[in-house]
Design a protein that fits this description.
Layout: E1 2-16, H1 24-47, E2 54-63, E3 68-80, H2 94-111, E4 116-117, H3 119-135, H4 149-164, E5 171-175, E6 182-184, E7 188-189, H5 193-199, E8 203-217, E9 226-229, E10 235-240, H6 243-252, E11 262-273, E12 279-293
Parallel strand pairs: 4-7, 10-12
Antiparallel strand pairs: 1-3, 1-5, 2-3, 5-6, 8-9, 8-11, 9-10, 11-12
Helix pairs in contact: 1-2, 1-4, 2-3
């Protein structure tokens, strides 16, 4: 049986332009490009929390006379009895994380009114988004990854194209209830994407660790990873490389496990970091099962 929990978050985008001067085709193309920046950025932020979350966007009100549109983002959590509940896989305040990160993106654009945005500005924003993830506790989601810096760069490039179509007196305003509007006019960029990739090249650290892991989902067929809870209540997917213990568990029937039991193990934790020390990904492998703690 499948159920859905839908969380709405609404923002407004207004394009202020000279109606008697601007070409309407250019105005609509500019509006489209800026919307593309918003939608792509917010989708990336949500999917990097949990790739199984669905994101939908709805235009709930468009006032063509002033080029004003209300955009509602729907973040959909699917709960399915055939798999673990996704609500256990996404931590913290998702809407606050996405909204504040989007505002940080627009604020960076607004602050660059009379200067050119470079790769370092992208990296600074990526670090700021990571801090927002910490403050909203979404970084505690087991599947959390930092957003792709190249996608952030694309958002700036789209904003550059959007504002290039307009005159110097025109501007976009991003409005969220209870917040001051953020005004963006001309966006200028000189971003070297190859250098950006090189700057964010990840560092991989491996460490050995003894752990006690509570079983959430066991792999009875021997084809997938196991799902555990750590002692910090973090949900993780783990590969078991102790072939002797696995053979005994799968074939001999001498190992009995019940819901809530834990494994005492030795394992390897492989963590990937970017240049700022921001965690990008974690992988867990059990090398030795030392015992079982029954509930």
């Amino acid at each position: 049986m499948e159920s859905k929990k839908i969380e709405d978050s609404k923002m407004s985008i207004e394009l202020k332009y000279s109606k008697d001067k601007e070409n309407p085709i250019k105005v609509f193309e500019s509006f489209r490009l800026m919307f593309e920046s918003v939608i792509n950025t917010q989708t990336e932020l949500v999917r990097k929390l949990n790739p199984l979350l669905n994101v939908e966007f709805v235009l709930t009100d468009v006032k063509s006379a002033s080029m004003w549109a209300d955009l509602t983002r729907k973040t959909i959590t699917v709960e399915d009895d055939r798999q673990s509940l996704l609500k256990d896989e996404t931590k913290g305040d998702v809407n606050e994380y996405v909204n504040r990160s989007t505002e940080a993106l627009f604020q960076k654009m607004a602050d660059s009114k009379n200067k050119i945005l470079h790769s370092n500005d992208i990296l600074t924003l990526a670090k700021e988004i990571n801090e927002i993830a910490k403050e909203t506790k979404t970084i505690e989601s087991p599947n959390y990854k930092a957003p792709d810096v190249l996608l952030i760069a694309d958002a700036f490039e789209n904003a550059k194209k959007a504002t290039k179509l307009l005159s110097n007196d025109d501007s976009f305003e991003f409005i969220r209830v209870g917040k001051e509007p953020i005004s963006v006019s001309k966006v200028q960029t000189e971003i070297d994407k190859s250098a950006l990739v090189s700057e964010t090249k990840e560092k991989v650290v491996e460490r050995l660790q003894s752990m006690t892991l509570k079983i959430k989902i066991a792999d009875f067929l021997g084809t997938t990873k196991w799902k555990f809870l750590t002692e910090e209540r973090k949900s993780i997917d783990v590969k078991i490389d102790d072939s002797g213990w696995l053979d005994n568990f799968h074939n001999n029937g001498n190992t009995f496990l019940a819901s809530g039991d834990s494994l005492k193990v030795d394992g390897i934790i492989k963590e990937s970091f970017d240049k700022f020390g921001i965690l990008i990904n974690s992988e867990y492998t059990i090398t030795k099962v030392k015992g079982i703690e029954h509930k």
